[in-house]
C-alpha cells in the first residue's frame, strides 16, 4: 500500500527536504507532492504562461490561477496533508490548504512552533496530529505502516 | 426565500455591525450568524464551561473545542460566507472558515484591503466575489434578491 | 409541499413571464428564481458594485463574479431547473446552468425549438423532460402536484 | 503520479492533436481521453449500434445515448478537463462537459479566442485557468508536475 | 418535527388509502407523496403534455419522462420510503424506487406477502423494516414519534 | 434559528430529562430527539409490530429493525449529537450513533465520567466537545446561540 | 485505461458468456464482475457459510446477506453496469442493482426484449443506453475505447 | 481485482492471525490492514512521538491522535471492514470503526459470540454479514471472488 502526502506551507525555505529525506531513509512507500517550491517562479507563473498582465493585482491573480490548479489536482490525490506553519509570512494559503484537507476528510498533521499555539488553536483543534518538528511528522506517517 | 450568511473574521472590533445594519436598512431577508464576538469570552469559554485547565495550551484547546462546535453548526446552516481580513492579527481561523466554505460549495465573499492582495491571492482566487468594503459585500448579497 | 424552480436562459426578452403567469393561474406552490433579468444591469453589475475596471475583459469578469454568486445561491435552493434555449445568442451560461443542475441531481426541464434538436442533443438526452413551449413546462411542473 | 485529462470541445477539426503532441514532447505522464473525434461516426453511432431510427430526432437521441455514455465514463476518470471553444458551431455539449467538470470538482482549463470573452464570461469565471492557445494549456498541465 | 413519506408501488388499486387513513387517525405529522395514482393518466401523461408520439415505445418513453420527473422531485423530499409489492404486475419501477431510496440513505419499509419472500430476498435484506401489512408499516412510522 | 439535537445513550434511566429541563429553562430553541426511552418497549417493539419471532436472536433482530429505523430518521434531522456514556451497560449502540454522527459531519458532544477516559479515548478524540455533566453539555449548546 | 463492468441479471442461464466472449474477441480492456452464477450455490450460500437456518425465510435472508455483500463490493468497483432482463423470473434484484448503479452515477446499459418495453419504461428512461442484444451492449462498451 | 480489508477489534490477543492465515491459504488477493497490534505501543505512541504528557488523560489523548490518524488513513482504503467483538474489554473503538464503515458505505462483516447477541443487536442489524468465527468471515470474503 502506497500513500500520497501533500506538504502544505510556505515556499521561502526548504523545510520539505527534511521530511522527504527522513521518509526516504525509513523506506516509507510515500509519494510527496506539494506546491511549486521555487518562490520566484510561483509568483510569476501567471505571466510566464499567460503573458503580461495589466497590473500587479492581475499578476497575482494569474499566478494563483496556476498555483490553485496545481494544488487542487495534487491535493485531490493526497491521503494525508502535512501543514507546516512558521513564525514568518502570512501563510493564509497554508491555512486554506489545511482546511480544505479537513473538509475533504483527509487527515491533517500540523507542524507549528510553540509560539503559534494561540493563533492556530482552531486549526490545531481539527488536526489529527499536532507536532513541532518534521521528525515527529515523519514518525506519525511511519506509524501508519508499522506492524509491531 | 430567506438566506443565512456566516460572518467569518476577527472578533477584536465590531466590523460585523456595519454589515448587519446595512442589510437591515435594505430589508434583506438574511439571518447573520458567526463566532462569539466577545473576544475575552471566546478565549476563555473552555474554562468557563469545562473548568480549569492544566496549562495555557489546554486553555486554548478547550476554548477552540467550543468555538469550533459553534462554527461547525452555524457554518453548516449558511448559504453564503463573508470572510473579512484586516491588517492586524494572524486570522488563520478566518482562512480556515473561508476554505471550509469553498470546500462545502458555499459561495465566499472576501473583504480585504488593497494591502493584502498578495498574501491573500490564492483565497481571493477561489472566492466568488472579492471586495474592499462591507458596503460592497452587502450590495452583493442584495443583488441575489433584486428583480430589476 | 412547496418547490423552488430555477429559470435558466437568456435575459434579452421576458420569456419567464409566461411561465410565472401560467403557474400562478394554476395556483402551483412554486417560488421561481433565476438570474437578474435586466440585461444591461447584469452586464454592468461588476462595475456598479466593485467600481471601474481596467478593461473590457475585467468588466465582464467582475460582472460574472456577481452573476455566478447569485446563480450558485439560488440554484442550490432549487428543486427543479428549467433551461430555455432559443435561436439567438450563444447561451453557453444556460448550458452551464443546465449541466450544473444535472450534476447536482436536480431534474432538468429543457425547452427548445425544433430547429435546435441537433446541437442540443446531448443536453436533451440528460434532461428529465424535453419540450417546446413554456406551457408544456408548466404542465410538467403541475403534474408533480396533481393527485388524479 | 499519472493524470487523466479529458479534452472537451468540437470534433470538426483536429485541435486535440496539438495538445497531445506537445504533452508527449514534454514527456508528461498524462493519458488524454475525450469524445469520438470522427464527426460522422459520432453523429451516426446510434444507428450503427442500435439500428435504424424512425426519425431524425431519434437518430440524434440514439447517438447522444452512446456519446453521453462515453463521456460519462471517461470524464469520471479525469483529473483535469480542458474545454476548447472556437468561433464556429454551437458547442453546447462543450459547455455541458465544462460545467459537469466544475460541479464534480475537477479543475477546468478553458481555451477560447479573445472574441468569445463576453459570451463565455460565466464559464471562464469558474475555470481554474483561462487561456487562448493549446500551448498555454499544456504548459499549465506541465506546471503541475514541475519541481523547480 | 414533520416527516415526508414516499409511497412506492403499483397504481392499479388504492392500497395507499389504508396507509393514509391509518396515519391520519393516529394524527401522525406526515405528508405522504408518491406517483400519480390514476393509472390511465400515468400511462398517457407523455402524450397529454408533449403531444402525439410516433409509436408505442415512444408513448411509454414520454410517459416515463414525466413520471420519473415526479418521482425524482418527491423522492428527494422524502425522509422514509414505503415500497409495497403484491403478487400481480412486474413492479420493476417499485424495485427501482426502493433501491434508489436505499442508495440515498433513506430508510425503506418493505410491505410484501409471504409468497414473495424468495424473489424479494435481496431487497428485503436491505430494507430497514420488512412487514406484510399496511397496518404494520404505519405502526413503524408511528414508533418514530412515540415517547413512551 | 432552531436546532435539532439527538440524545444518544442508554435508556435504563432518565438522564435525558436533565438536559431537556436545563435547555428549556434557558429557552434554547432546540428540539431534542432520541431513541424510545421505555426500555422494555424498545426491546420488544419487534414483536409488538411484526408479531412473534421464532427465537431470541430474532426477537432482538426485529426490535433493532424498528429501533434503527427510528434512529436513522431522527439522526438524519439532527444538527448536533450528544452521546452519554456511563459505567454500566455495553453501550455499543451509543458508540455506533456517536460514530455515525462524526461520519456524517454532525458535531458530537461526549459526556462521560472520568473513569471511562481510557476506553473512550478514540471516540473522545473525535468529539467536538468532551465533558462530564449534562450541565456542561447544555452550556455548550447554549454557547452556539449566545451573542455576548 | 481499464474498466470494470458489473453484469446484473438472472443467473439461471449463461447469458453473460456471450458478453464476455465478444468483449474478449475485441480485446477490450475490461474486467467483468457480477453475482455468483451458480444458481443453486447462490440460493444456499447462507447455510453453506453460516450453518443451518430455522426456516425457509431465514435461509433466504442468510443467502441474501452473502449475495448482497458480494454485489456491494463488486458494484462499488464498477465503472459501468449492464442489466439484462428476460421474460422469465421476477428479477427484482436486477432492478435493484440497476437502480443502485444509477443512484451512484454509474452509467447503465439496459438489455431487454421488445416485449418488456412497457413494464421497464421507467428504468429504461434512466439508462444511458437501451438495447436488445448482448452484441449491442458490447459494441457500446467498445465505443468508449475506439478512436476513429 | 484486489481488495483491502480492515480488521477492527481489540488488540490484546492475535485473533487477526487466523484470518490472515486462512485467507493466505485460499490465495485470496486481499491486503489486510488494521490498528497497531502491539497493545503497549498503541497505548504509549503519543508519548513516543510527541513527548511526555502532563497527565494520564493527555497520554490517552495523544495516543488516540496517532491511532485515529492510522485508522482514518487505512479505513479510507478499505473495501470491506471486519469487526470482531469478544466478551472482554469495552471495545467502543471497535464499535466506532464498525459504524464509520457503515456510514461510509463499506460493507461490514461482524464476528461476535452468541453471548453478545443482545448488546450488539443494532450493529448486527446494520452489518452485511454476521457470523461467529474467523473461518466464516474468511469464507464470506472468499465468496466475493468465487466463480462457481
- C-alpha Rg of chain A (nearest Å): 16 Å
**Can you give the mean pLDDT of chain A?**
97
CATH arch. level architecture of the domain at 3-36 and 77-145 in chain A: 3-Layer(aba) Sandwich
Low-confidence stretches of chain A: none
Beta-strand share of residues of chain A: 15-25%
CATH fold-level assignment of the domain at 3-36 and 77-145 in chain A: Rossmann fold
Oligomer type: homooctamer
Overall CATH class of the domain at 3-36 and 77-145 in chain A: Alpha Beta
Structural class of chain A: alpha/beta
Strand order of the largest sheet of chain A: 2-1-3-4-5
Shape of chain A: globular
What does this structure look like?
Eight copies of one chain form a homooctamer. With 148 residues, chain A is α/β, with parallel strands linked by helices. The first copy, chain A, has a domain at 3-36 and 77-145: Rossmann fold (3-Layer(aba) Sandwich). Helices cover 51% and strands 16% of the residues of chain A. The first copy, chain A, contains six helices and five strands. A five-stranded parallel beta sheet of chain A has the order 2-1-3-4-5, with helices on both faces. In chain A, strand 1 (3-9), helix 1 and strand 2 form a beta-alpha-beta unit. The longest helix of chain A has 22 residues, at 56-77. Chain A starts with a strand and ends with a helix. The mean pLDDT of chain A is 97.
Note the main attributes of this structure.
five-stranded parallel β-sheet; globular; 148 residues; 51% helix; alpha/beta; Rossmann fold; homooctamer
Amino acid at each position: 500500500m502506497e500513500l500520497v502526502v501533500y506538504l502544505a506551507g510556505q515556499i521561502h525555505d526548504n523545510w520539505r527536504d527534511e521530511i522527504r529525506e527522513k521518509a526516504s531513509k525509513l523506506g516509507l512507500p510515500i509519494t510527496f507532492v506539494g506546491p511549486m517550491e521555487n518562490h520566484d517562479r510561483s509568483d510569476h507563473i501567471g505571466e510566464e504562461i499567460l503573458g503580461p498582465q495589466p497590473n500587479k493585482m492581475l499578476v497575482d491573480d494569474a499566478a494563483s490561477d496556476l498555483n490553485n490548479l496545481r494544488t487542487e489536482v495534487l491535493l485531490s490525490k493526497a491521503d494525508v496533508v502535512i501543514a507546516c506553519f512558521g513564525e514568518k509570512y502570512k501563510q493564509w494559503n497554508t491555512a486554506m490548504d489545511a482546511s480544505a484537507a479537513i473538509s475533504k476528510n483527509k487527515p491533517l498533521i500540523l507542524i507549528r512552533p510553540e509560539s503559534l499555539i494561540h493563533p492556530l488553536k482552531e486549526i490545531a483543534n481539527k488536526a489529527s496530529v499536532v507536532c513541532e518538528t518534521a521528525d515527529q511528522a515523519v514518525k506519525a506517517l511511519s506509524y501508519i505502516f508499522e506492524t509491531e
